[in-house]
TrEMBL record:
Active site (catalytic residues): 78, 170, 172
Subunit structure comment from the entry: Homodimer.
Species classification: Bacteria, Bacillati, Actinomycetota, Actinomycetes, Micrococcales
NCBIfam families: guaA_Cterm (TIGR00884), guaA_Nterm (TIGR00888), PRK00074.1 (NF000848)
Keywords per UniProt: ATP-binding, Glutamine amidotransferase, GMP biosynthesis, Ligase, Nucleotide-binding, Purine biosynthesis
PANTHER family xref list: GMP SYNTHASE [GLUTAMINE-HYDROLYZING], GMP SYNTHASE-RELATED
Pathway the protein takes part in: Purine metabolism; GMP biosynthesis; GMP from XMP (L-Gln route): step 1/1
Protein name listed in UniProt: GMP synthase [glutamine-hydrolyzing]
Function: Catalyzes the synthesis of GMP from XMP.
Catalytic activity field: XMP + L-glutamine + ATP + H2O = GMP + L-glutamate + AMP + diphosphate + 2 H(+)
Native organism: Amnibacterium soli
Listed EC numbers: 6.3.5.2
Enzyme class: ligase
Length: 521
């Protein structure tokens, strides 16, 4: 792999993604990693990420100097570039001139040649994204300077002999116009790493792994209707076929068409064994009269586990009758979850604490997590490669508790029907307007405890408002409200008030996150 050394801040994940977009498998390692540990991983390249520190700060994250002696090609970015400069005998100076944001850099005459690493074939003047206080004022001996900016004499350097390269700017950020070219040039031209990481290879490799892990045991997987569990299950199904059983708990809180997409389209595409648990009555009974958001979430979570365990116990029982054993549970854990929880070996056993529905007390499943090394966009690419329907693979994030937390007030069948209709109209119109790529997600919320006066036809109405919450985001941690065109909002509003009984007002949520969360509950 290419190892991305994480110096803090949010850049390492983005770099790892860009490396993979270049067709090269990458993994993130913490900056405390030793040269020995790196060597043991046999990396084909190393990228040192940016970070929020100054190399002069007390306790600034350092790099084991042995790492630069391994003979592995290295690309230093921003803080990583400065650490590299310092360790190799260059000079990093407090210039007192901070560069932040889009900045012009000029390639040096030496870099203008066709064979210049990192910047070959790029225009002499270009715009890059900078974010730094200190600057490299002198390149280490034997390095040539590739670029400079008004306030940074050494904005990029290279030593072909040592196969070491660095840029002060952030090539992983889209605002650096030729950023991806810099990354690809380092990987393919300078380090000579081929572009052979692609969905087809990932599938083949994971199928092998799953077979090796599972042996001849049986496997169970809960499907939520979301992308991750759908792709994880499809991969496992590719590996073990009929020995996988999927369980889909229909809690009645999904959006229009979603249960059918799982029960019909997903099964048609994969041929997976599916057990559907109709738990609608159980969920709605348990939610009756409850309007506190946290209580609703807890009830939905609890009922979900109960329903899933009951179904799992049946699957285990049936397997026994057939002389088989269910030993594994599939989970759709993604790489960002793994990185953010500090790694871990993936051998966790989940133990069932709820002794319900005849589930044996000591029932333990080992986890199969075929998406543990993948980013979300890769999961989607693999899902497409596996032939999953676009409505599932392209689905925007949707919370586990579903429409249950999009009704402000208690949840009833009628209210669910109202919200489902309004939500379907919104999704249809946003998609038709081609906004799916721009919008991260658009919760549609029914204010069931609020009424307002309206006039429809010849009469006065006293109906409920629907809230539209379109947001743009990179990762759901922060978000901004999407500037949806007025004409489109007008159309959506018209359709909802005309087509959905009980709704006489449509309002737009124009709050960023923070302070507002994306969901209303
Ligand atoms: P908030 O409302 O916290 O949401 O800004 C951030 C993202 O998380 C989703 N979300 C959930 N997803 N189970 C989930 O699987 C949940 O309980 C849940 N609550 C919120 C939300 O849709 C948004 O994408």
């Amino acid at each position: 792999p290419v190892l991305v050394v994480d110096f803090g801040a949010q850049y390492a994940q983005l770099i790892a993604r860009r490396v993979r977009e270049a067709g090269v498998y990458s993994e993130i390692v913490p900056h405390g990693v030793t040269a020995e540990e790196i060597k043991a991983r046999k990396p084909s390249g190393i990228v040192l990420s940016g970070g929020p520190s100054s190399v002069y700060e007390e306790g600034a994250p350092a790099l084991d100097p042995g790492i630069l002696e391994l003979g592995v090609p290295v690309l230093g970015i921003c803080y990583g570039f400065q650490v590299m400069a310092q360790q190799l005998g260059g000079t990093v100076a407090h210039t007192g001139r901070r560069e932040y944001g889009s900045t012009a850099v000029r390639l040096s005459a030496e870099a203008a040649g066709e064979d210049a690493p990192l910047v070959a074939g790029q225009p002499g003047d270009q715009v890059v994204w900078m974010s730094h206080g200190d600057s490299v004022s002198e390149a280490p001996e034997g390095f040539r300077v590739l670029a400079s900016s008004d306030s940074t004499p050494v904005a990029a350097f290279a030593s072909d002999e040592r196969r070491m390269y660095g840029v002060q700017w952030h090539p992983e950020v889209k605002h650096s116009v030729h950023g991806q070219q810099v990354i690809e040039s380092f990987l393919h031209d300078a380090a000579g790493i081929p572009a052979d990481w692609n969905p087809g290879n990932v599938i083949a490799e994971q199928v092998e792994r799953i077979r090796a892990q599972v042996g001849d045991a049986r496997v169970i997987c809960g499907l939520s209707g979301g992308v991750d569990s759908a792709v994880a299950a499809a991969l496992v199904q590719r590996a073990v076929g009929d020995r996988l059983t999927c369980v889909f708990v229909d809690h009645g809180l999904l959006r229009e068409g979603e249960a059918e997409q799982v029960e019909r389209d997903y099964v048609a595409a994969t041929g997976v064994n599916l057990v559907v648990v109709d738990a609608v009555d159980v969920f709605l009974d348990a939610l009756e009269g409850v309007s506190d958001p946290e209580t609703k979430r807890k009830i939905i979570g609890r009922e979900f586990i109960r329903a899933f365990e009951r179904a799992a116990a049946d699957v285990v029982e049936q397997a026994k009758e057939e002389g088989g054993k269910v030993g594994f549970l599939v989970q759709g854990t993604l790489y960002p979850d793994v990185v953010e929880s500090g790694g871990g070996s993936g051998t966790a056993n989940i133990k069932s604490h709820h002794n319900v529905g005849g589930l044996p007390e000591d029932l333990e499943f080992a986890l199969v997590e075929p998406l543990r090394t993948l980013f979300k966009d890769e999961v989607r690419a693999i899902g497409r490669e596996l032939g999953l329907p676009e409505v599932i693979v392209g689905r925007q994030p949707f919370p586990g508790p579903g429409l249950g937390i999009r009704i402000v007030g208690s949840v009833t069948r009628d209210r669910l029907a109202t919200l489902r209709r309004a939500d379907a109209i919104v999704r249809e119109e946003l998609s038709a307007a081609g906004l799916d790529g721009e919008i991260w997600q658009c919760p549609v919320v029914l204010l069931a405890d609020v009424r307002s006066v309206g006039v429809q036809g010849d009469g006065r109405t006293y109906g409920h408002p629907i809230v539209l919450r379109p947001v743009s985001s990179e990762d759901a941690m922060t978000a901004d409200w999407t500037r949806v065109p007025y004409d489109l909002l007008a159309k959506v509003s018209n359709r909802i008030t005309n087509e959905v009984a009980e709704v006489n007002r449509v309002v737009l949520d124009v709050t960023s996150k923070p302070p507002g969360t994306i969901e209303w509950e």
